[in-house]
């Protein structure tokens, strides 16, 4: 863990918007929006009801809301995501639940085909 990481402990409930340049680790509950320029980690007992935006995301708990991930989204076997997801790389372990539309992007390939 780095000094600029934000940690939401298991006993914490937050209502509002979280925004960080560093990584965000959620073990508790968050309602609102979650935005990080780095990595979002959602613990296996965590619950997020929010629009999510991150560079990378690792989900072991529950996310209710759309997720926009610039690079890699990884759903562990205990993850439940109810919402649309967008990512360059999607890794889904056996047992994970994803209820929503999935869009995978290849920015460089799209740029190369435009013209």
Task: Determine the N-to-C terminus distance.
Answer: 44 Å
Helix/strand-derived class? Answer: mainly beta
| Total discrete domains | 1
Q: Stretches where pLDDT falls below 50 for ≥5 residues?
A: 109-115
Strand content: over 45%
Let me know the number of strands.
Answer: 15
Percentage of residues in helical conformation = under 10%
Shape: globular
- Along the chain, the helix and strand elements come as EEEEEEEEEEEEEEEH
Largest sheet: 9 strands, parallel
Number of helices: 1
Global Rg: 14 Å
Mean pLDDT: 90
Features:
115 residues, disordered C terminus, nine-stranded parallel beta sheet, mainly beta
List the helices and strands and how they pair.
Layout: E1 6-8, E2 13-20, E3 24-26, E4 29-36, E5 39-42, E6 47-54, E7 56-59, E8 62-64, E9 67-69, E10 72-75, E11 80-82, E12 85-87, E13 89-92, E14 97-99, E15 102-104, H1 107-113
Parallel strand pairs: 1-3, 2-4, 3-5, 4-6, 5-7, 6-8, 6-9, 7-10, 8-11, 9-12, 10-13, 11-14, 12-15
Notes on the protein architecture:
The strands form two sheets. Strands 2, 4, 6, 8, 9, 11, 12, 14 and 15 form a nine-stranded parallel β-sheet that branches. Strands 1-3-5-7-10-13 form a six-stranded parallel β-sheet, with no helix packed on it. It is globular. The chain has one helix and 15 strands; from the N terminus they run E-E-E-E-E-E-E-E-E-E-E-E-E-E-E-H. The protein has one domain. Residues 109-115 have low confidence and may be disordered. Helix content is 6%, strand content 56%. It has 115 residues and is mainly β. It has one helix at residues 107-113; strands at residues 6-8, 13-20, 24-26, 29-36, 39-42, 47-54, 56-59, 62-64, 67-69, 72-75, 80-82, 85-87, 89-92, 97-99, 102-104.
């Amino acid at each position: 863990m780095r000094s600029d990481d934000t940690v939401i402990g298991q006993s914490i409930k937050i209502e509002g918007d979280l925004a960080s340049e560093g990584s965000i680790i959620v073990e508790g509950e968050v309602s609102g929006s979650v935005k990080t320029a780095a990595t979002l980690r959602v613990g296996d007992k965590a619950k997020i009801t929010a629009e999510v935006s991150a560079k990378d995301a690792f989900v072991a708990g529950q996310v209710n809301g759309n997720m926009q991930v610039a690079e890699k989204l990884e759903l562990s076997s205990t993850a439940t995501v109810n919402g649309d997801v967008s990512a360059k790389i999607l890794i889904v372990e056996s047992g994970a639940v994803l209820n929503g539309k999935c869009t995978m992007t290849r920015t460089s390939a799209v740029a190369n085909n435009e013209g």
